[in-house]
Design goal:
With about 260 residues, the chain is an alpha+beta fold. The protein has 7 helices and 16 strands. The chain has 2 domains: about 150 residues, 2-Layer Sandwich (Fructose-1,6-Bisphosphatase, Chain A, domain 1), CATH 3.30.540; about 90 residues, D-Maltodextrin-Binding Protein, domain 2 (3-Layer(aba) Sandwich), CATH 3.40.190.
């Protein structure tokens, strides 16, 4: 599957459309109804509506490319293991941010090729900001009413800013960051942590606790296409389409 500017535009438009549907619910003034999935994570009508939009639109682009989504992930590994390409989708990343009306939630769409994310699209609906990344074209940010800006990780910094989650910080992460020239810490919701590294606003994101493949795939593509690197905690390649879609810990950093 060739990654072209046309494909990036098509998938970006899908993410924006899903984001607009999420915003309609977010700004409706109605109480957000929350159910709990079998893995004890929250689910809202916004997750479902965004997922429906994305799944249908990706199928319209190429119905032969499989889709692995948070809201439809029960595909046996014996089937998935044969995928050469597949879409990895989180229709609403940062559901807790959404529920508590913190604006840092995103739509994540990534294309995986043989265990690696080769295209990442992240849209932040409240900020109307779109991030894209692929190796051939680099990483870009298009803000509301702004011209597209090419992103570059800040690899020259000697004093680092660590970025992490508001709700998933751990003592293990604090301990690990002591091995790096970290002088300050900031927090961000959802996959925006990867975007902050891509645009040079942070230098390391260390995550000890578990995530799912759809939480990280688009962010990894964007961060790596800006010049950052992402590995397991042990320094090995961070891979996708594993027998379990549950990720281990990782480090995303500028070098």
């Amino acid at each position: 599957m060739n990654i072209t500017e046309t494909l990036i535009k098509q998938v970006s438009d899908i993410a924006v459309k899903a984001g607009e549907a999420i915003l309609d619910i977010y700004h409706s003034g109605e109480k957000i109804k929350v159910s709990v999935k079998s893995d004890h994570t929250p689910l809202t009508i916004a997750d479902k509506q965004a997922n429906d939009i994305i799944i249908q639109a990706l199928a319209d682009i190429d119905s032969t490319v499989p889709i692995v989504s948070e809201e439809g992930a029960d595909i046996p590994y014996e089937e998935r293991r044969h995928y050469e390409y597949f879409w990895c989708v989180d229709p609403l990343d940062g559901t807790k941010e959404f529920i508590f009306r913190r604006d840092e939630f995103t739509v994540n769409i990534a294309l995986i090729h043989i265990n690696r994310p080769v295209l990442g699209i992240i849209y932040a609906p409240v900020y109307k900001t779109l991030y894209t990344g692929c190796a051939a074209l680099g990483s870009w940010r298009k803000g509301n009413g702004e011209a597209a800006a090419k992103l570059s990780a800040d690899k020259q910094a000697t004093e680092w800013i660590a970025i992490g989650s508001r709700s998933h910080a751990s003592a293990e992460e604090d301990e690990a960051l002591r091995d790096y020239p970290v002088v300050s810490h900031i927090a961000a919701g959802s996959s925006l942590k990867f975007c902050r590294i891509a645009e040079g606003a942070a230098h390391i994101y260390y995550r000890h606790g578990p995530t799912m493949e759809w939480d990280t795939a688009a962010g990894q593509a964007i961060a790596e296409s800006s010049g950052a690197v992402m590995t397991t905690i042990d320094g090995n390649p961070f891979l996708y389409n594993k027998p379990s879609l549950l990720n281990g810990g990782f480090i995303c950093k500028v070098r």
